[in-house]
Write a structure and sequence with these properties.
The chain is mostly helical. It is built from 14 helices and no strands. About 80% of the residues lie in helices and about 0% in strands.
Amino acid sequence: MWKYILKRLLALIPVVAGVILIVYLILNIAPGDPARIALGDEVSAEVLHQWREEHGLNDPILIRYLRYLAGFFTGDFGNSFSPLQTPVFDEIMARFPYTIFLSVVAMVITFVLAFPLGILAAIKQNTWFDSISMFVSLIGVSMPIFWLGMLLLLWFSLGLGWFPSFGADSFAAVVLPAVSLGFSSMASMARTTRSSMLEVVRQDYIRTARAKGIGYGRVIRKHAIRNSLIPTLTIAGIQIGNLLTGTVIVEQVFAWPGIGSLMIQSILARDFPMVLGCMVLFTLIFAIINLIVDLAYAYVDPRIRAQYS
């Protein structure tokens, strides 16, 4: 097991290097001059040249990429292109707790609603509960996150005044962003859970357990739910990653002071070091979540645990 974990962690090195290269190429191809955005259009060409020289932008892209890579793997994320030249690592760590808090609340909403909804829809197949729950799930899968966020702002913030429309000053401020972020993931996981449960409850061992006189509720709890978790875990890992990356949109809609809004501001300002720092952090989190999901497979399925051993 430990060998497998170490292998997966070592595999992150080329993944991170590849992500940095792709983001570097995209940022350099995209229109917009970081020097002009930082200094304005009125400055002279000499001042622009000096600013680019100070920030290493006059060097070839390959040299800049290798220099950034060397600094990153030694713990140096560089400084922002902003006038204050804030260290990238410090700025990201200052906003990271807000993004994690929003993502965790959205995950709680997702899991608390998705699993019971999917399980009950499978148990009560072809009933009114199944039809309504799957209709709601279809809406959740189809609806863009930013549009749902705007609707929630109009109804519950501007209309009813129940929740703040921006900021992160209180727990009430996280409700609307977390619901808009978690609703789509909840809908997708509920549909997957229902499909997996329907497949499991039709298996022969479920019929055998029922024929032995075991109660239906106990068969569902002890046999069906656990065996239906493996496909659901796959979707859960993907959805957790989507929740973290989805904060980029939600934080912008609700003016949430997290890494997502920081990355959007940095992209608009062509702040290369800050964009790279945010992207690398999202990559690492996504990879670690996938590793945790793989280890969860081993906990749920003894056959996979034996393969790791």
